[in-house]
Design goal:
CATH superfamily of the largest domain in chain B: Type I PLP-dependent aspartate aminotransferase-like (Major domain)
Distance between the termini of chain A: 59 Å
Number of strands of chain B: 13
Number of domains of chain B: 3
Number of helices of chain A: 13
CATH class of the largest domain in chain B: Alpha Beta
Helix content of chain A: 25-40%
Largest sheet of chain B: 7 strands, mixed
Largest sheet of chain A: 7 strands, mixed
Oligomer: heterodimer
Helix content of chain B: 25-40%
CATH superfamily of the largest domain in chain A: Type I PLP-dependent aspartate aminotransferase-like (Major domain)
CATH class of the largest domain in chain A: Alpha Beta
Strand content of chain B: 5-15%
Radius of gyration of chain A: 26 Å
CATH architecture of the largest domain in chain A: 3-Layer(aba) Sandwich
Shape of chain B: globular
Largest interface: A-B, 201 and 201 residues
CATH architecture of the largest domain in chain B: 3-Layer(aba) Sandwich
Chain lengths: ~450, ~475
Amino acid sequence: MPFIPHTEQDIRDMLSAIGVAEIATLFDEIPASLHSSLPASMPSQVTEMEIARVLHERAGRDAQPVCFIGAGAYDHHIPAAVWELTTRGEFYSAYTPYQAEASQGTLQVAYEYQTMMVGLTGLDVSNASLYDGASALAEAVLMAVRGNRKSSARRVLMPTTVHPAYRRVTETIVRNQAIQLETVDYEKSGGKLNRAALERWSGEDVTALVIQQPNFFGCLEEVDELVDWAHAHDALVIALVNPVALAVLAPPGEWGQSGADIACGEGQPLGIPLSSGGPYFGFMVCKNAYVRQMPGRIVGRTVDVEGRPGYTLTLQPREQHIRRSKATSNICTNQGLMVTAATLYMSLLGAVGLERVAAACHANTRSLLEAVAGIEGVRPAFTGPRFHEAVLQLDAPAGQVLERMAGAGVLGGYDLGQSYPELGQAILVCATEKRTDEDTAAYARAMQKALRVARRA
Amino acid sequence: MLIFEHSREGRRAYAQAPQQQAELTDIPAPYRRRTRALLPEVSELQVVRHYTRLSQKNFSIDTQPYPLGSCTMKYNPRACNALAMLPEFLARHPYAPDRFGQGMLACLWELQEMLAAVTGMQGVSLAPMAGAQGELAGVAMIRAYHEARGAHERTEIIVPDAAHGTNPATAVMCGYQVREIATAADGDVDMAALKRALGPQTAGIMLTNPSTVGVFERRIEEIARLVHEAGGLLYYDGANLNAILGKARPGDMGFDVIHLNLHKTFSTPHGGGGPGAGALGAGKRLYEFMPIPIVAREGTQYRWHTEIDRPQSIGRLSTFGGNIGVLLRAYVYARLLGREGMPRVAEFATLNANYLMARLRAAGFQIAYPQRRASHEFIVSLKREAKELGVTAMDFAKRLLDYGFHAPTTYFPLLVAEALLIEPTETEAKEELDGFVAAMCRIRDEAREDVAFVKNAPYKLAVRRLDEVRAARDLNLSWKPLT
């Protein structure tokens, strides 16, 4: 019996101790009408060898082309040590650290992680993770609504330069709480938030402004001006940031006169494999003033009865298992194992290593843009500074071009047509530090050919 | 010692970053970071040694029995991890075309089918990233259903007082008022209280079955009938599905929507608190409202169904497709169990719980619901020990750690005084259960001899009992270098 250790003798002894003749009797409180068995369509049990064969065969079908897609998930190098250690049973098979004395490993990792996120963002307090970037943004919106006592409108400005999937997820999660999410358009040439569109909200009660930096198009927003505008209008600022970019870009805590109030985002770039989109983790960091509004687990340092330092979950009265219907969120489990991986990743890279990774991504994307600059029918959509992504406009149907490039072994980018039809045939491209000069050359060749064929069609 | 305290200026793990610093000249200075972030400067060996040592300060299923009630801390088969981490699965970008993910999608589609069959639901969405997110989606679906019918007066969700804290917190996040109902003395829902609570304002009820007090809700069919007659829907919190896996199905009980904690019943790792996966099943009333994306099979091909295919969906819960790596682990586990193994899980989880309950009762411990069968878990109340010896459930919990057992869930559910909620799971051998009983008896003996000794436990762990009051009062949530 897979994973069940009982011998026939054990079963007899145990039933006898209980005082029943057979295991079936233990289910006698379930009404007879509800007893059921599994349908024949349920596959029969297999051995590890057999299921391994199935999975290896299926993985073999999923060989991946060279990846030039970003759009919220990034193909970075992950040091071998990260997952060798993360999947140690002591991390992998432990639960949420409710018994602090028996969970000092997990708790100290989370405390170190919180410290690293404070360092990267320049804010005061980090929680121990949320589910992913998009749900972290939704929680940040809810947190800003709770935290901004000067605003009663429950109105959050959500620029269209924020990742479209993040906007949809936020909508799903906050929909039933009477919060208005208002869009703010972007500049057609610069690809960044349109200040004139923002001014339309001057004089209105605005609860919070979301700023994605770098934004979904890869462009850099004028974060200092935007933060000062928001604070002048008594709105909180939610910074949605890429943690690798923070190695080279100004941290949210230093934006404008007084810094963003909450920073959140996707932790995947910090040592988490692409894995078709998950599991990743969301991070959230805020100013001290808002710590009691923060959702999720938070780890604090304390001492034991002998005065030795130790770590424990703290500020639990915010959470659902204590406050029930009055909790800051319903979140319970978060993404602890992913945080372990990210902490290992950040320790191995350090500030210098992370800066080099960020700079290499930036440089490789620039090289990619240079490589396609001469191709007929390709032009960059936006001017202005960017980090490691860019929008390209094509003179042929983007879907077809990407499909042909994929056939040639290159994932050429993310098709923006569905979310940004006004951009025409446009794609979002990204080259991380893993892309080589050969990859870039292959990209250019594949794109040139795909465009030529598409134009002929 | 913290990783930061191993840090020395100028030290690095040189193999892990590009050898050259690339130019950043086309990012103008105002956008740039002025000072380096505070991250440790350490060698690769220092990192490996530090985190290996930290791991050794954890209790885990791989190292200790972990009878944490309501959490189903069973063995996480290593094959599930190894096969979910095949390089092709890890390398796939979420926006790569579906044709580069046919192997992965085949696994997920089959998982959807297996979960639908074992729960008796019409369809399954794997989108929720944790149990609480499954709850959020499920209650949002109930709301969408009522709104689609113009039933805006349905503003209340009924929740038993013994429910997990996530239930009322979720109902509030979905814009509902929470109406708590009592649990009867026999552990079942108080039917009179339920009838009083039901009315035209009822949107639905959230139930866990077997319930959080560790017993099967015997009148579930009548409850379902009453709730449906009142126009409400039934939400099934799948935290305790391990107790009935392959033996009874929530769909047959009348539930309209359920979430499964795959990190419990389907043995994906808890990871020190996540990632989980909260697969969601829906019956015919709520099928159209399930969160996206959902894997569809079309001929021999698989593809994600999105907003376009499912316009009534409550929408997306994550940036991409949910915790796919976790779902692959659950798939491997489900296949290893198969049709034969699933009911065995319920049988042996129930056998272990009833055996442990019988042994503890025989040893003189007070069982909270002695007249009932245990499900896969049960409650010991240490009320008498607290009164007579001055030793609490928390003291027992801490001293159990010294004996090499992770503590059961303490003080939950709230309606039983000095509660220890104990869930041994099917993967523990009889010797471990006997060892647990022996440890409980010894702790009681120790308390009789010297109560202060027990109250000061633990003694053998990385730290002694921690000052949690101080942690909350003098907040220290990140390390600061000495300046």
